[in-house]
Design a protein that fits this description.
The chain is α/β, with parallel strands linked by helices. Helix content is 30%, strand content 30%. The structure holds uracil. Uracil binds next to α6. Keywords: Allosteric enzyme, Glycosyltransferase, GTP-binding, Magnesium, Nucleotide-binding, Transferase.
């Protein structure tokens, strides 16, 4: 597994405002959206392309188009939904699949409660959107879900990551014969006893959408 922490002053600035407990939900949603687009620029460096012939007003030339099958973007519900528009801005022709996962706050284990994905993902590049790579349980389960269906290239985009989550991903995906990359705006210090990232930004779903129970 490769972990790429995007080192850019605009990324650091937007993340700082997201971390601030006084940032309200509309501002949080807006900045998360912008931050994802910056992360997506880095995350799509390996997107598969093919040569594409065009005519400019002056001459014929060979350009670049996204290869087929198109990449699949997979937000993990609910908080990953807040990252979808920022991602689709860069990959407007990608397809979108959904996985709903919830973390049991006692065991910190993830379980799937909803899924809308093609049954066959053979040869598909997948971009998984999960704002907080905390314990790593949710992301590991989602990645296994996708690779079990044939996805052969996975990039996870996370606003924040914790070392414990990255270590768990490394462990759980060790036998997987599929390249996995995590792209994140920062690697924070640690998890607290409730599984929150420290210093973190709190509960990403609540910050995006309010406390909906
Ligand atoms: N999920 C969140 O939303 N925040 C954390 O800090 C950890 C998991």
């Amino acid at each position: 597994m490769r972990t790429h922490v995007v080192d850019h002053p605009l990324v650091a600035h937007k993340l700082t405002v997201l971390r601030d407990r006084h940032t309200d939900s509309p501002t949080f949603r807006h900045l998360a959206d912008e931050l994802v687009t910056l992360l997506a620029y880095e995350a799509t460096r390996d997107v598969r392309v093919q040569a594409y012939e065009i005519e400019t007003p002056v001459a014929r030339t060979t350009g670049t188009a996204l290869a087929s099958p198109k990449p699949l973007v997979v937000p993990i519900l609910r908080a990953g939904l807040g990252m979808l528009d920022g991602m689709m801005r860069l990959l407007p022709t990608a397809e979108v699949g959904f996985v709903g996962m919830v973390r049991n706050e006692d065991t910190l284990e993830a379980s799937t409660y909803a899924e809308r994905l093609p049954a066959d993902l053979s040869g598909r590049q997948c971009y998984v959107l999960d704002p907080m790579l905390a314990t790593g349980g949710t992301l590991a389960a989602a990645i296994k879900f996708l690779t079990d269906r044939g996805a052969d290239h996975i990039t996870a985009i996370c606003l924040l990551a914790a070392p414990e989550g990255c270590e768990r991903l490394e462990r759980e995906l060790a036998g997987l014969d599929v390249p996995v990359t995590v792209v994140t705006a920062a690697m924070d210090e640690r998890l607290d006893e409730k599984g929150y990232i420290v210093p973190g930004l709190g509960d990403a779903g609540d910050r995006l959408y309010g406390v909906a129970g």
